[in-house]
Design brief:
single chain, 3-stranded antiparallel β-sheet, 9 strands, elongated
Length: 202
């Protein structure tokens, strides 16, 4: 059957979504929509409505979640989002349970680091523009970085990250301790100790 053009509030469009809404449809629909610049392909089976204007970090986070599932924004992007580091990362950085990968949408690069399934926790779903995006709590973003970044053991590297002392001290340390206990990683505990040593020297 013929499918009407995407509505302005349809952000992410999938073949499965169209079948649920309209039943069987012409398989050339997405090709036609791409030719008319109504949608652009993000990956196989996922298209972004071109009426949706990507304006900022929250929009990019929402796209990051959709590009590679399951995933949540963490590491440098989440740390900057919460004001824990000053440098705005070129990539949108996330963690996922599948293999480490990078992908590009337009001019924006999205990267994903692998976490074990049992470590895939500590994030919230934030409502946004009728959808939501998943982003680590600040405490888990810090622990994810400590877990995945070997250079976190190097005092000089931690100094170069320029963690904001005040923001670090305002973290929920009960939550951080709880998350750290679940992760059960001596390496992570040692790297957080390095961070605290560096901050104590400021």
């Amino acid at each position: 059957m013929a499918v009407p053009p995407p509505k302005d509030d349809d952000i992410f469009i999938t073949p499965a979504g169209l079948r649920k809404r309209y039943g069987n449809f012409d398989p050339n629909t997405f090709t036609y929509w791409q030719e008319k610049a109504l949608v652009r392909k993000l990956r196989n089976g996922l298209y972004l409505n071109n009426a949706f204007e990507v304006k900022g970090k929250a929009d990019q986070f929402m796209i990051a979640n959709q590009l590679y599932e399951p995933s949540y924004v963490s590491l440098h992007s989440a740390l900057h989002y919460y004001g824990l580091i000053p440098e705005f990362p070129y990539e949108v950085t996330s963690v996922a349970t599948k293999k480490t990968t990078r992908t590009v949408d337009g001019k924006k690069r999205y990267s994903y680091r692998t976490l074990k399934p049992e470590l895939f926790f500590g994030f919230e779903n934030v409502p946004w523009r009728g959808q939501h995006y998943s982003v680590a709590y600040p405490e888990k973003a810090l622990l994810d970085l400590a877990y995945l970044e070997p250079q976190f053991s190097d005092h000089a590297w931690v100094e170069e990250m320029r963690f904001d002392h005040g923001s670090i001290m305002e973290l929920d340390w009960d939550r951080l301790t709880h998350f750290s206990h679940i992760m059960d990683s001596e390496v992570v505990r040692q790297r957080i100790a390095v961070l605290l040593d560096v901050l104590a020297d400021d």
